[in-house]
Design a protein that fits this description.
Chains A, B: This is Diphosphomevalonate decarboxylase. 2 copies of one chain form a homodimer. Chain A has helices at 75-93, 122-136, 143-153, 209-219, 221-243, 247-266, 277-295, 318-331, and strands at 4-11, 13-17, 22-24, 29-30, 34-38, 45-53, 60-63, 66-68, 104-111, 165-168, 181-185, 193-200, 303-305, 312-317, 372-379, 385-387. Chain A is of the alpha+beta class. In chain A, the strands form 4 sheets. A 6-stranded mixed beta sheet of chain A has the order 8-7-9-6-1-16. A 4-stranded antiparallel beta sheet of chain A has the order 2-5-10-11. The longest helix of chain A has 23 residues, at 221-243. Chain A binds chain B through residues 203-204, 221-222, 225-226, 229-230, 252, 255-256, 259-260, 262-264, 266-271, 273, 276-277, 280, 283, 287, 291, 362-365, and chain B through 203-204, 221-222, 225-226, 229-230, 252, 255-256, 259-260, 262-264, 266-271, 273, 276-277, 280, 283, 287, 291, 362-365.
Chain lengths: 404, 404
């Protein structure tokens, strides 16, 4: 008897134009378009195996080896039901296709980065879920079509269906049929976009993005202006910057939009804060690094961006990452040596870091070890990858192979 | 020979609707109207003596005993010149008046609060300067007329010409002749408005408000929306709340506007941060205190507001201040005992503070001693006070009596 299964990995994406606010909370339709860079799965990924079997009497899902309840009507149930509907269309068109849509499905997923890192895993997770079911069901759907379904799992997940530079078009249709992801440019168009993730400690759990963004929609007078008058222009500007590989403009818009997202969070009642003093200091360091570059007749060399948490993601051309790591380590001493996936440093490593010449050291104070818990160096990456049978996360009995 | 001199004290004011942005930087004309509460001079004040003497060969000014250069064309020079112009009008109308406008003037000013407290002294300082010169020159000008001149020293100084609840009307005239302060209500209308100032330590000097606000005008897309569409409505709402002694509405609008001011500062390029993790935690504490009050069927009990720095000012009816001090001290242990000007606490003092029943302690972590350096309890106060000869800050030789 055949085993019907597929294993796919999907990437994390980090937005440059931020998604914050839904116009439809059930269908997850956003109040504005957004744009992100997909990060390299060599470093950060969710991997998911989906298996359909007539012996499975229900749909079940394990995340990092721990079973999650698929709540009826919930986001996971919606995604699975939508994928089965597409499979049914395939089966109806070709009666020789096995009736996988009628089988129970077991899904096992894991992230290669710790939850404690505070990196949003819902984007890569739902992208991997939808992609693995699409592979299992041999659907003819393209990534944009699949993004419509991933979007209903987690809004930003739709952008993880593509590699490279990806826009989520807000769309106008009430049923959400035009609220989908499109590729602005593949990674190969601009492969020199690197990213340094600064994992920041936080004392307390912030407001969840799901509840936070709706409170902003309901109470921030500034959000409407952002939606109507600021984001449309920025979307055009940054897409052009990407097509022209214009890092200066890319960086400027990325930083402005990160700040504006946190500004409308602060304009919410009661206010929402995601950045802390460590986040602020990283902004001050990047700002000074850029000021110096411009003062020396150059252009912006780095761009920070912050999602709904204190972690910084710093985008920069590869050639600047060494200086940036040295700057960050100078202010935020690390307990562990820098993992150096691109071999920027020799065997001596980063050491205690150093400031670039002319850098004003007073822009931030030196923080204690652990304030920035870790640094992850990665770069723009590709879209979901179909993996071989050897990579399966389900054992022969249909239970997860990797337990928590 | 007569000694021509006058000594006046003037109060600090803390805005509820924030002034942030100039449409004319020379005349100091704001981009929006603002509104403040004048604080009690019994606790916080600037005191200024001005003396005119034919033997003074130039205008000189001492601040806390230290001479400040009166830069030609600068703000102090402008205020002094404007006051001399008004004096000249008096002299021209009545030729028996001594020609004080032709004399040099010596000005000695001091604040009764340390500069290190991080409280803006420019508002009380320029209000005291202008008021003392008005008294010296026996000008017939009313406080609104004087506010036109104090405004050219420091925008928010115009609001310190009145006690109680004060609006600074932005005006429309290009020459600034209608950009002045008016009294919305005197302190006696609503004397129960108390304030707790939490003096917060900061590691670094923030952006000056003068340069910061113009960077916001130049770069924040959200500021224009705030100016045109948000502030006018809030000015109406809070004035009505003051006239009706409606603390709930007063508190809501005050907190929203503080947050929106910091939101547009964050929307500035590069972003401006004035609040730090201590400020954020005080917001979280006040938010929880209010949440609990509302959950118990009541109304808002306290309102935080932050100017261009990390210090919190918490407005509340007197009856709530004891609970608020206890809450703040619980999270921010104090090195010094609480100075208790209204005798809220017995001889035992505040001790280690305590939480009100039902308060969720997890909204903030406990900070080390010194994070909040001090607490000042005050209340709504009166306008500039003319003081007696005994209070003079100038010695017989025209030099300051109180040296730094």
């Amino acid at each position: 008897m055949s085993v019907y299964q597929a294993t796919v990995s999907a990437p994390v994406n980090i937005a440059c134009i931020k998604y914050w606010g839904k116009r439809d909370t059930k269908l997850i339709l956003p109040t504005n378009s957004s744009l992100s860079v997909t990060l390299d799965q060599d470093h950060l990924r969710s991997t998911t195996t989906s298996r359909a079997d007539p012996g499975f009497d229900s749909d079940r899902l394990w995340l990092n080896g721990k079973e999650e309840i698929i709540a009826p009507g919930g986001r996971m149930a919606t995604c699975i039901a939508e994928m089965k509907r597409l499979r049914r269309e395939v089966e109806e068109k070709n009666s020789s296709e096995p009736k996988l849509s009628t089988f129970g499905v077991h899904i096992s997923s894991r992230n290669n980065f710790p939850t404690a890192a505070g990196l949003a895993s819902s984007a890569s997770g739902f992208a991997a879920l939808v992609s693995s079911l699409a592979a299992l069901y041999a659907l003819p759907a393209n990534p944009s079509e699949l993004s419509l379904i991933a979007r209903q799992g987690s809004g930003s997940a739709c952008r993880s269906l593509f590699g490279g530079y990806v826009a989520w078009q807000e769309g106008t249709a009430a049923d959400g049929s035009d609220s989908l992801a499109i590729e602005i440019a593949p990674r190969e168009h601009w492969p020199d976009m690197h990213a340094l993730i600064c994992v920041v400690s936080d004392d307390k759990k912030g407001t969840s993005s799901t509840s936070g963004m709706q409170r902003t929609v309901e109470t921030s007078p500034l959000l409407q202006h952002r939606i109507k008058h600021v984001v449309p222009e920025r979307m055009k500007t940054i897409q052009k910057a990407i097509l022209e590989r214009d890092f200066d403009t890319f960086a400027r818009v990325t930083m402005q939009d990160s700040n504006q997202f946190h500004a409308v969070a602060l304009d919410t009642d009661p206010p929402i804060f995601y950045m802390n003093d460590v986040s602020r200091s990283i902004i001050a360091i990047v700002t000074e690094y850029n000021r110096l570059a411009v003062a020396n007749g150059g252009k912006l060399k780095a761009a920070y961006t912050y999602d709904a948490g204190p972690n910084a993601v710093i985008y920069a051309p590869k050639e600047n990452i060494k200086e940036i790591v040295e700057l960050i380590v100078s202010y935020f001493p690390q307990a562990e040596p820098f993992k150096d996936p691109f071999a920027l440093f020799g065997t001596a490593g980063v050491g205690e870091g150093k400031l670039v010449e002319g850098f004003n050291p007073a822009v931030a104070k030196k923080f204690p070890v652990g304030s920035v818990k870790g640094l992850i160096h990665t770069r723009v990456g590709d879209g979901p990858r179909k993996l071989g049978e050897a990579e399966t996360l389900l054992g022969p009995d249909g239970s997860p192979k990797f337990l928590a």
